[in-house]
Amino acid sequence: MVGSVTMAGRLDAVLLKADGRRIDLGLLGRRVVTTAGVNFLRDDFNAGSTEITSMNFHDSGTGAVAEAVGDTDLGTPAGPITRATGVQSAPATKQYRSVGVITYAGALTITEHGLFNQAARGGGTTLWDRTVFAGIAVVGSDAIQFTYTLTINDGG
């Protein structure tokens, strides 16, 4: 479509085992940039009342309900109470990337990831993107390194 701009999210992961092993899980999904996330971006353009650079906090959960543009949170947040702060970069033309590592205290099967604008869970946070994937089993002191890449294609 002439004049359209598209955004595509991609989530990759590496399982970091407590014994030092790194297991590359590759692509977990290409899923949903939410309506709340798009409105957050619009508000930053409109009045600067939000700050899009704050979309840098990774959270995970055990929810299994499919992603939808209307999502505002994870299905079932799990793991640390405070979201992991990502390391931001622009790895290629038209791309934004955030890499966050979440370390777990106990045994869980992680099935979802979200990128948010705040470290604290709860009211006032905005979910940019949510991805549901096949379960990743973790035990105490295991971690998952999530790499979220957003590609923004120009239109003309």
Structure characterization notes:
The chain is mainly β and 156 residues long. The chain has one domain. Helices cover 8% and strands 47% of the residues. It has one helix spanning 35-47, and strands at 6-16, 22-29, 32-33, 57-61, 77-78, 84-85, 87-89, 95-103, 108-116, 127-138, 143-153. Strands 3, 4, 5, 6, 9 and 10 form a six-stranded antiparallel beta sheet that branches. The protein has a five-stranded antiparallel beta sheet with strand order 2-1-11-8-7, with no helix packed on it. The radius of gyration is 15 Å and the shape is globular. The mean pLDDT is 93.
How many alpha or pi helices?
Answer: 1
- Strand elements, count: 11
**Average pLDDT figure:** 93
Total domains: 1
What is the makeup of the main sheet? 6 strands, antiparallel
Residue stretches low in confidence (pLDDT < 50, at least 5 long) are none
Strand content: over 45%
Order of helices and strands: EEEHEEEEEEEE
Secondary-structure-based class equals mainly beta
- Any idea what the radius of gyration is? 15 Å
Shape: globular
N- to C-terminal distance: 8 Å
**Percent range of helical residues:** under 10%
